[in-house]
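Researcher: Good morning. I'm working through a list of sequences from a screen, and I'd like to move beyond sequence-only analysis. For each chain I'm collecting a predicted structure so we can compare shapes side by side. This is the next one on the list. No need for commentary yet; just the structure.
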Amino acid sequence: MTSTTYTRLLFRARTGGPEEDDRGPKVLEHVLGWTLVVLLAVLVTRAGLM
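Model: Good morning. Structure tokens for this chain:
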């Protein structure tokens, strides 16, 4: 790696995306996601769409 490449890596612009440590609790996200799936399935079967 040249010194120019290293300098460019140091001063890379932030895009505002999530960082590795900023993802939050994954377990809660999975539980809420599956709850939404189950509720949607119940609504679809109750409405007679399936």
